[in-house]
Task: inverse folding
């Protein structure tokens, strides 16, 4: 789809649409059609888990016939890349949680690495972060590791 290829407002402007296309579209579209467009956009944005106030702001622009302004601050994103990042974050936080639980049971780094089938160096890095945080707060440990290693940590 064309919309999936757009990554920011400049690419939208490069579509070479007629000069007043969006203005004419918004001025000449019947209110009923704008309302349908607004409802469809609301459903899509809710599926993307946007906050209600953001959805309302966006759909208000449609209803108020300000479609030309909709894409001024448009910034696309790479859905597969976002999914990969989220999956990696989930795997790392799960590993941190498992390590925290095993440390609470008094297990050694070697035993944890063996049990989790992970590299001892990886377990040591996470244990070091846990010590620095001073708690078994998984999110705090993850954030520290992200800051210190600029997201180069890969279990």
Result:
């Amino acid at each position: 789809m064309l919309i999936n290829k757009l990554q920011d407002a400049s690419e939208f402007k490069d579509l070479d649409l007629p000069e007043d296309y969006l203005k004419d579209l918004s001025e000449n579209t019947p209110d009923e059609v704008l309302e349908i467009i607004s409802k469809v956009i609301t459903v899509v944005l809710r599926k993307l888990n946007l906050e209600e106030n953001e959805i309302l702001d966006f759909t208000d622009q449609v209803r108020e016939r300000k479609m030309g302004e909709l894409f001024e601050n448009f910034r696309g994103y790479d859905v597969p890349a976002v999914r990969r990042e989220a999956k990696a974050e989930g795997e790392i936080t799960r590993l941190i949680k498992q390590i925290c639980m095993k440390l609470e049971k008094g297990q050694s780094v070697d035993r944890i690495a063996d049990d989790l089938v992970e590299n001892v160096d990886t377990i040591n890095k996470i244990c070091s972060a846990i010590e620095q945080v001073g708690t078994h707060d998984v999110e705090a440990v993850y954030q520290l590791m992200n800051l210190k290693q600029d997201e180069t940590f890969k279990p």
Remarks:
- The CA atoms of residues 98 and 116 lie 8 Å apart.
- Residues 2-70 form one domain.
- The mean pLDDT is 81.
